[in-house]
Amino acid sequence: MVGAGLAGLSAALHLRGAGVDVTVIEEQPTPGGRCPDATIDGYRLDLGPTVLTETDQLATVFAAVGESMDDHLTLRALDPAYVAHFADGSTLPMHSDSRVMHDVVAGFAGQEDAAGYDRFVRHVQRLYDVEFPHFIDRNLDGVHSLIGPALLRLAALRGLGRMDHLIASFFRDERLRQAFSFQSLYVGVPPHKARGMFAVVSAMDLVHGVSYPVGGMYAIVRALAEVAGEHGVDIRLGERVHAVRGSRGGYEVGTDCSTELTDAVVMTCEPDRATTLFTDPRPIRSVAEPSPSCVLLAAGVPAGLPGDGHHHLHFGASLRGALDDITDGRPMRDPSFLVSVPTRTDPTMAPTGADVMYALFPAPARHGRGMEVDWRSLRGSYRDHMLRRLSAAGYAVDDLVGEQLITPQDWDDRGMPWGTPFSSAHTFRQSGPFRQANLIGPRLAFAGSGTTPGVGVPMVLISGRLAAERVLA
């Protein structure tokens, strides 16, 4: 196993559960990959994903070795899942309980949109019921593996049309259209360019619910790594893999410390990074369009923050305009952004009376016109821009502790292609069977966000299981 992030740990536990001897080699001194954290002056800061959905997928990883997730993690359901803040000053708590949310939408925009919300919930659940078993939770072997009744059902559910048109068919209020379509950004595509099939992400968080693990998102990494160790998985940290080559019916994996002969290899790095490790040609797809990147500011707030709610979505006057800025390769002038306050759910993340704040501002990837942005020189002024926006939104940012600011240049410096932690965008030609295949040789597989099924915590956990199935087969 190359890499001890969520995908690598998932693959390792699924393989170990099948009776395979597993060694995980990770170049960083700690496991976690794109889900790291930092503890500074009593503040625990998550520096990766903050939204956890589809927790059944996480439970499946523990169950692979006969463990119960509940014995290792405490998850708390978030209610509301998000609070949406709009440019006109209105706010919308977004609950996963559809009966509660019906009444909220009725009070916010009227009975017609409340009825539209009811139809929306039924529709995205139907999308989920078609997509999850047929397009997400299985190994795909080319376009022909999709041809069948499920594809016809997906088309009938308008999954192949534009997502913004789909959402508009349920809601008249533009604010509701924004609130129920922003999820396409999770897969790297703005709503006006995304396919309707990606409305399934709304089913995952706004219908099935959002959770938070006590101890922060890194608690997931810690629990998986501990369980893996208890079940005999050898995790070697601080050791870099520099070559993978076929040898004697298996593979030689060369590291800084040794050369290992193994029957199978699962790679969790980005596919284009893996090409530098292979000594013989492999079928690696070139990425035409990476996902947008982000600027992340995480810090402790000693004075605490006002208000309630864990995840807050702040929309600018025009979400489309902000996303067009990113497409045009420039930072958003009127940004829409996410603020998470995990201490609302887990006060142990900060000293008594204090809070932790996590602010994520989408930004262009270091690709195409985005390469023209010099983040090294822009870093200070963009930080000031973020602080002004956060202050205007009601967050106390005058005194921050342990501040962590990560720009697209920093993501690039950390080895993430195109300076984005979100891998390749889920355009039509980079999704499903068109995405980088996870099987690239006999018992040689990819896992992680760069392969199928794609980006997001549940997806990379699934990718680890699918990769394990590949090498076991």
UniProtKB/TrEMBL annotation:
Keywords annotated in UniProt: Carotenoid biosynthesis, Oxidoreductase
Pfam families the UniProt entry points to: Amino_oxidase
GO MF annotation terms: oxidoreductase activity
Top-level taxonomic group: Bacteria
Domain Amine oxidase, chain residue ranges per copy: 6-472
Classification via InterPro entries: Amino_oxidase (IPR002937), Carotenoid/retinoid_OxRdtase (IPR014105), FAD/NAD-bd_sf (IPR036188)
Biological-process GO terms, alphabetical: carotenoid biosynthetic process
Pathway: Carotenoid biosynthesis
Similarity comment: Belongs to the carotenoid/retinoid oxidoreductase family.
NCBIfam families in alphabetical order: crtI_fam
PANTHER family: PHYTOENE DESATURASE (PTHR43734)
Protein name, as recorded: Phytoene dehydrogenase
